[in-house]
Amino acid sequence: MIKLHQLARTWGIPNLSHFCVKIETYLRMTKQPYQVVDSLPLKGPRGKLPFIVDKDKKVSDSRLIVNYLKSTYGDTLDAHLSAEQKAIAKSFQRLLEEHLYWISMTSRWNYTEANWQTNKKAIFSVLPPVARDLAALVYRRRINSQILGHGIGRLSSQEAFDLGKEDIDALADFLADKPYFMGDKPTSLDASAYGILVNTLGCPIESPIKDHALTKKNLVNYCQKMQAEFFPELAWGGTNS
């Protein structure tokens, strides 16, 4: 059975890690048996989560994990898409994972002190106090360095959030009234979309990007529907745990 290493559940959503949500959602969408192993990023082969262990193979990076799962167990989600649809799905995946994700990270790690304390408690509270504070300091510096290197960290908060609002508008306009991003059937894009969006509008991290996303009723309904369909054990709205 596949072992999925990820952060412990919190906030009433599948995971506070966008990419842990993506992989667990993908596994549930494909009905692939798996076992969750609560872990911390420092235990990951790339210093990040999630990663999976399948038999004697360890795979990290959510993009590589999905590719591995498709090549090993078959592509049951995207095989029906045309080449054009696959190109569109890939483009939206990149928007979500390579742009909107980083704006979401900005809101958690260096936007307000309240957000940082909420984030810190959720991730590091499992550690003893001294180790918790040290680990939080080290990872905060590391993440902020990555945000800076990406380029989003070189913008003002207002500039970054304005760009994020453009992403939200594009996602809402493309989804329109469809049940899933690519039509009537869920695809791997939905695993990415739900992972990023639920960690934008469904968690207790406050920001202008969250406020804007909450005005898009179709995106809110989409996240609620995805959670009800693939994580029925989690009641929507439990973001205060």
UniProtKB/TrEMBL annotation:
Sequence ranges assigned to domain Thioredoxin-like fold in this UniProt record: 19-113
GO cellular component, one term: cytoplasm
Domain Metaxin glutathione S-transferase: 164-226
CDD domains reported in the protein's UniProt record: GST_C_Metaxin (cd03193)
GO molecular function: transferase activity
Keywords: Transferase
InterPro entries reported in the protein's UniProt record: FAX/IsoI-like (IPR026928), Glutathione-S-Trfase_C_sf (IPR036282), Glutathione_S-Trfase (IPR040079), Metaxin_GST (IPR033468), Mito_Protein_Transport_Metaxin (IPR050931), Thioredoxin-like_fold (IPR012336), Thioredoxin-like_sf (IPR036249)
Source domain of life: Bacteria
Keyword Nucleotidyltransferase: no
Record keyword Nucleotidyltransferase present: no
Any one Pfam family match given in the protein's UniProt record, by short name: GST_C_6
PANTHER family: FAILED AXON CONNECTIONS-RELATED, METAXIN RELATED
Listed name of the protein: Glutathione S-transferase
Lineage per the UniProt record: Bacteria, Pseudomonadati, Pseudomonadota, Gammaproteobacteria, Methylococcales
